[in-house]
Amino acid sequence: MSMKVGNQPFFEGVDQAIHNSFMVNAVSSAQDGLRDKKLKATVGDETLGDWENWRNAGEEIRAFTLNHLDYYLKQLSDNFSARGGHVFFAQTVEEAQGYIRKVVREKKAKNIVKSKSMVTEEISLNEALEEEGCNVLETDLAEFILQVDKDKPSHIVVPSVHKNRQQIRDSFKKLGYKGTDDPKELAGFARKTLRSKFLEADVGITGCNFAVANTGSICLVTNEGNANMVTTFPETQITVMGMERLVPSWKELDILVTLLCRSSVGQRLTTYVTDITPGEQDDTVDSPKDFHLVIVDAGRSKALGTEFQPALHCIRCAACLNVCPVYRHIGGHAYGSIYPGPIGAVLSPILGGYKEYGKLPYASSLCAACTEACPVKIPLHELLIKHRRKYVEGGGTPPASEKIAMKGFGIGASSPFIYKAGMKTAPILLKPLVHHGAIEKGPGPMKPWTHGRDLPAPSKENFRAWFKRHKETEVQKTNKETSD
Amino acid sequence: MSGTIENREAFLENIAKKLNRESGALVETPDWTNQPQWAVYQNSSKDQLVEIMKKASELIHTTIFETTADQLADTLDNAITEYGGAPVIATNDHRFSDFGLTDVLRKSDAYIWNVNNGHKNIDVAAQANIGISIADVMLAESATAGLFNDKDKARSVSLLPVTSIVIVPKSLIVPRLTQAMQMVEKKVEEGSEISHYINFISGPSNSADIEMRLVVGVHGPVKVAYIVVHDL
């Protein structure tokens, strides 16, 4: 599955991540910066009125659109093709890859430039096109950095957040860079390197922030200007979209672009909000002549009509990542999915299955900060609990420790004798692990928990004993008061 | 010219089935309960919107010049000099001559986009120091120039040169994206064709991808200036 990042089991990835102090610091400071900007541009911006009304508007639009998805996708494809564009519906990753490979082959394309797109990561498009003998170039600065290093994204909006400037400078040296680690100089190098590539490319590939059903348009929300280059100079444009990323009309586009820009990077609008509709006049010089739209399911429809449908409301702003205490400590790669953080923990098991991603819903403290941050009000922490329930009920293979723990607790709790014995022996059995009143490094099922926090040592007095003693004291007190 | 659609039927049937909907059933998009967008700056005058825009432009590293129709040629001339002069390229927009700017463009030896010259246009734009466009709508809230690009009002002019100068007639300033989207929707309702490249641009290209440090000027222009014309 191409959503996959690395090959490590989840908890091993976590182990490694929490010891990577640069990464943890970089993620924490990025989180703080993005969260502050978001708060200023949302609840903190009084010109918008009540931000809750905007969230409600977003939720209402997304829920209605998803509930009538077949209708709006039909309308989108009708309008896109009526203007001369070609639409391909891809049920699977392989179908999407196959169609794009075919287009590229027919065009005899060699040079391909791409703007940032999570769905093309999801369908491993670069690898597929390289097999076709194409040079595929990522042109978003962060994606360019990752491509030079053969690395994967660790954040939905700022994919190279885990890398520092020295690492980036060293990577660029492979391309002949001789400058310093000043971000401005590094970005200048990317500008110079990529400028000629845009102008020479045969095919431009983009993702899709939102498609507009009533005109067959594609909206791209960006800052660097690379997406504008990608959609201006190559003869052929291929846009790949997750099937849920659309709005009925321009009226709804207004709301969702506002929610996205403000929630993702705290900007009123990003530098470029570009709406592309096929069918330019034939003598236009700076426009593609051939438009393709690939609409990808790749597991999304598994959520439709289920309790997980709201996960498809996501507009990929990453506001949930930017408030998540777990993401803060483990970063993006530990999730093992290109979709990390709370939304990743909800979405990855839907798209990639419980076998691969069933442990991700446990990467949450269920503090609900994600739900509160979501601009379209996806009940993320509730969906995480639903995943856990399904997982334990047999939706996948739950962690062995949890199975044993649950089973053990079931046996213990149903037998008064074992329960009493357990309660009495716990303080004695765990005594060697207790330091300063807490278990700091637990074995087996306690290990992942005690890595992040201490487990309180069992009290020598169990609750039943405490309750009995407390009750007796209360009775004695009452008797005394009555007799006084 | 009509394009093609592949694999649609089974794909949509699967979705309809999952949603428990009859495949192909019509839908009417409702009047939404929540429409907070209309209240933003709803009673602001054009002058107030200019002030809002000026404040917003400070957040996006964009310079604003203010002028009047009879001073516009001089203001543009000064701006061209300030940003380093030729080579200059401008879109092929009849408003340049309507606004009396033909001479100032000639003076700076500006290249005017011309589809008959084919790819040469892109080469000129890529070498240009300054690109000049005229806004089709201006969003006060975010200091955003809305360009409804076409084959003559070419998108390359605001994209490839080092500096992008956009002339903004004050009459085109609206509160926010909402009103610009409404303009597009109106065209759709009337059945007229919309611009194939609607470009909302808020300042120079930028990125914070390296350690979250803002770098202004990545792939698009490094500098952006708006010239607001009060009586146009």
TrEMBL record, chain A:
GO biological process, one term: lactate metabolic process
Single GO MF descriptor: 4 iron, 4 sulfur cluster binding
Domain 4Fe-4S ferredoxin-type: 304-335
Record key words, sorted: 4Fe-4S, Iron, Iron-sulfur, Metal-binding
Pfam families attached to this UniProt entry: Fer4_8, LUD_dom, LutB_C
Keyword Zinc-finger in annotation: no
Highest taxon of the lineage: Bacteria
Transferase listed as a keyword: no
Family annotation (InterPro entries): 4Fe4S_Fe-S-bd, 4Fe4S_Fe_S_CS, FTHF_cligase-like_sf, LUD_dom, LutB/LldF, LutB_C, NagB/RpiA_transferase-like
Protein name: Iron-sulfur cluster-binding protein
UniProtKB/TrEMBL annotation, chain B:
InterPro entries noted in UniProt: FTHF_cligase-like_sf, LUD_dom, NagB/RpiA_transferase-like
Domain of life: Bacteria
Domain annotation LUD: ranges: 52-229
PANTHER family referenced in this protein's UniProt entry, alphabetically: LACTATE UTILIZATION PROTEIN C
Protein name (database record): Lactate utilization protein C
Organism listed in the record: Sporolactobacillus shoreae
